Amino acid sequence: MGFGDEIMVTAEARRLNDATGRAVRIVDRHGRSRWNEVWENNPRVAARDFCGEVATLRNGPGCRHYLVEARRDRFVFRAGAVTAPGEIWFDAAEQEEVEAMRAGRPYVLIEPNVDAGFGHTVNKDWGFERWQAVARALSGVRFVQAGPAGVRRLEGAEPFESGRFRRALVALAGAALFVGSEGALHHAAAALRIPAVVVFGAFVSPAVTGYASQRNIAVPHPGYPLGCGLRTGCADCRAALDSIPVAEVVRHIQGALAGGGAID
Ligand SMILES: [Zn+2]
After folding, report:
1. Which residues line ion ligand 1, judged by CB < 5 Å?
2. Tens digit of pLDDT for each residue in 189-224?
3. What are the Cα distances from residue 87, in Å, to 8, 14, 169, 207, 257?
4. Residue 12 alpha carbon to ligand 1 centre in Å
């Protein structure tokens, strides 16, 4: 659906690269070569102009490994397809910046917004005001919020301008912790081995897109054990998100900052 999908692809690319010893060409459902900025510098992924022997991985819109089906109205999820974190490879300049950010005062990267470019993301949106309440409740914590110019910013969080998604990855890689909704940055946090507190709600289950190393705050959906998947605004997903108290997210952030990893 977005960058999160393309990060998940890199775990599949690693598996295929390890099995074959060949660079992996990622193709769409018609067999055409694909490229995404999150694969930059990844030595396992064949660039479009790569001429050597390749192994082919079919993964893209309409053929995602974690979906049984992308119906017009609803995503039908597959359990157990996301088995390991993906990979993100920085170039030397990016790595230098990551190290400089790590050397500063520790911070939590917070993402209060969901990608409005898709119809379903409203079903992952815990709510900007709740994230604002989280930041207020943890006033001793340094929060940094990445995002392009003009994005809605939390009061009390330092802005980090990231016009390109890779810039947000740099900010994430320097962080002590990531907190936000299920989405691209929680996949990126797993790939970068950054601890995370992730609000899932009921749209998709951590059994589908979650990582055991992260604190996943999910609400079971009575009709869809792997997550609702509805591609338009859903009352059940809204109710599930509304049932997650600010205090619970705050408690998980405190626990994670105190050194605890996944929820027991
Ligand atoms: Zn729903």
Report:
1. 228, 230, 234, 236-237
2. 999 999 999 999 999 999 999 999 999 999 999 899
3. 8, 8, 12, 20, 24
4. 28
